Amino acid sequence: MVVNNIKPQSTPSPNAPLAQKSAGDAKKAENVQATKSAVNAYAKAGQPAAQQAAANVQISPRARELSMARQIVDSTPDVREDKVAKFKSMIERGEYKPDAGKIADGILAEAMRDEVSKDADVALS
Question: Which pTM does this prediction carry?
Answer without folding.
Answer: 0.32
